[in-house]
């Protein structure tokens, strides 16, 4: 059954809710455990501000998970998932600004990605067991200081600036991630387009592989790689990640 979890400020209060037919209902209990649907809080349009849909202890990220993107950046197709981490301090919500780190970088890029939200503690799980580990899915933007990525020879600094991991606007559970349309729109123009069926490593393989490296905790996020079409942004640009069955994540660069 499809379910949508949201965290937002509505009518002046921070709330965790369930979205049904455009209405936000208070979630009573724990989205990672037992919960019930409480009273209606208002429509999605009445939300004054969205919050990050989760507060992860870590964001585990996958590089080069679309063949066309690996070719685009001139790197070999990986034989196993290529992993890196983004700190929890990179996470912001739908509608929050992405801060351009002009004191260090002269080229910042967008990267549209499908995000997997972990629903329970899991370690060393097999691919067939991963479905029970996943709460749901959301949109992500793996913002990257591309010049620093090239300069450093590894990815930590380029991926880790505060605000460099927008997530949202909500988490959708009960959908199949195997073949979702994904795109990035920059100032209204589509600049990335693919389907998750083009992953080199599908979601079940990624969750299993990562869980054999590090224990995944409820609320942790895995971002699954970006398709070809990466490019730079400047201050004032509007980035929109759109994923079929989930929605649109929008952030402005400032």
TrEMBL record:
Residue ranges annotated for the Fumarylacetoacetase-like C-terminal domain, each copy included: 58-253
SUPFAM superfamilies reported in the protein's UniProt record: FAH
Record's keyword terms, sorted: Metal-binding
An annotated Gene Ontology molecular function: metal ion binding
GO BP of this protein: carboxylic acid metabolic process
Pfam family, one: FAA_hydrolase
Protein name (Swiss-Prot/TrEMBL): 2-keto-4-pentenoate hydratase/2-oxohepta-3-ene-1,7-dioic acid hydratase in catechol pathway
Gene source species: Aminivibrio pyruvatiphilus
């Amino acid at each position: 059954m499809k379910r949508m979890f949201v965290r937002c400020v509505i009518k002046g209060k921070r709330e965790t809710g369930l979205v049904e037919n455009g209405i936000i209902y208070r979630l009573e209990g724990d989205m990672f455990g037992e919960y019930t649907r409480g009273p209606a809080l208002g429509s999605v349009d009445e939300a004054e501000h969205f919050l990050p849909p989760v507060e992860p202890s870590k964001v585990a990220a996958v590089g080069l998970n679309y063949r066309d993107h690996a070719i685009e950046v001139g790197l070999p197709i990986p034989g196993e998932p290529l992993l890196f981490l983004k700190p929890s301090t990179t996470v912001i919500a739908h509608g929050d600004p992405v801060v351009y780190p002009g004191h260090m970088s002269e080229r910042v890029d967008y990267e549209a990605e499908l995000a997997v939200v972990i629903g329970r503690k899991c370690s060393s799980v097999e691919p067939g067991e991963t479905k029970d580990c996943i709460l749901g899915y959301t949109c992500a933007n793996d913002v990257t200081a591309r010049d620093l990525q090239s300069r450093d020879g590894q990815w930590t600094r380029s991926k880790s600036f505060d605000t460099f991991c927008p997530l949202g606007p909500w988490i959708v559970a009960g959908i199949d991630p195997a073949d979702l349309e994904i795109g990035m729109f920059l100032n209204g123009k589509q600049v990335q387009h693919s389907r998750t069926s083009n992953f080199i490593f599908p979601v079940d393989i990624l969750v299993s592989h990562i869980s054999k490296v590090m224990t995944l905790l409820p609320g942790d996020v895995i971002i699954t790689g970006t398709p070809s079409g990466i490019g730079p942004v400047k201050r004032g640009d509007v980035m929109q990640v759109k994923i079929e069955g989930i929605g649109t994540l929008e952030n402005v660069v400032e």
